[in-house]
Specification:
By secondary structure, the protein is α/β, with parallel strands linked by helices. Helices cover 31% and strands 17% of the residues. The chain has two domains: 184 residues, Rossmann fold (3-Layer(aba) Sandwich), CATH 3.40.50.720; 187 residues, no CATH class. It has a nine-stranded mixed β-sheet. Strands 3-2-1-4-5-6 form a six-stranded parallel β-sheet, sandwiched between helices.
Length: 457
Amino acid sequence: MTVFQRPSRRRFLQATASIGAAGFAFPLSQASFGDTSPNERPVFATIGLRNQGWTITSKSFQFADFAAFADVDAKVLGQNIERATKTQGKAPEGYSDYRKILDRKDIDAVMIATPDHWHTKIAVEAMLAGKDVYCEKPLTLTIGEGKLIEKIVKQTGRVFQVGTMQRSEYKGRFLQAVAMVREGRIGDIQKVTCGIGGSDSSDVIPAVDVPEGLDWDFWLGPAPKAPYRALPEIRKGYGGGVPRYTNCHYAWRNWFEYSGGQMNDWGAHHVDIATWALGADKTGPNKITPVSYSLPVEYKDGYPTVDDRYNVPTKFEILCNMPGDIPLVITSEGDNGIMFEGTKGRFFVNRGKIVGKPVEDLASNPLPEGAIEEVYGGPVAKNHTDNFIQAMRDRTQPISDVWSHNRMLETCHLANISIRLGRELNWDPDKREIIGDEEASSFISRESREGYEIEGV
């Protein structure tokens, strides 16, 4: 049993009350668990271990002890148990069924890095089991899932961090960008462009035998029943070692059944920063217009007419009408990153650079002292997990809270719906409803496959 020291009931109730009243609260940075006694380190578990699952786990060993892993692929599970054992000197327990982790009383928090279609079910059940949650982005597959997660966070008072790491990492470039916009360094905002890249198309991907050790039915989980598909070519580079063309490992991002393509994948990063800088993280757009787009298969009534090829948009330009009638453009073209344009200049930021004359002008006219900390809500954490653990200790919500994330992600979800139906959508950001389009509104939620409904709601 962990001896992780939880806050007093009084502090917990104060924090929970503030969440209910204001939606969320940012923590002020103090000494992290990783900087204190080993007996105060929280106990974590990771659910979904391939690629990003191991990335967020490996960044967290300095702050937490990992007692358990879960993955539906026995090979992935075994490999990562071995890696973790070498790193922390003791082996986490391995499970094929994540629910056995949620049953354990010694685990304080779970990190979720499954494919997107599993996020909501696991996250909700984890909170109801008394766990704090760190969940990878994009948080949800639908707008309705986001609303459910918000409800359960408020109901349980759990701490919930979304894995939009650009808010905490990458040498503070994105924090600097937000601070520059807020300090008026480019004047009044005229346009923001998010370059997020396009997705691949594919030839027909045949149904083949499921790889040994993979529980395919459990991998599908809440998604519709489907055969395992793959072509022989093996993917190289990041996410490599598996079929390049498949409806499973890594390439699941190219199927609406499990993801939202680049719109939700990279969009969840760059649209997040753009929305934050615009001060629109408590509201959203009022109109979404698909200026241009390309789908790799034919669609009817918003659904692909074939099920054996990638189906998310390969190219697109989406115009989002943000508060103040500021245009936010989401495009598959150009450099990956964000261009901010205003009446006094423009600058570009991505994970490797922040450039433009307003940036150069900082040499002679730096941002005011404390401007970055004001954006972040206190001293910037060592990394995204550090911020999460600080929030666990203080019982406040971290820098990537579910409310601001869902508001941003609604823009991405709406963009995908507009592409699938091929028309403009009007959105009420107060009611969080599509206006006057019953067919489009049907995409707000999706039923789970029988046997994989969310337990406890």
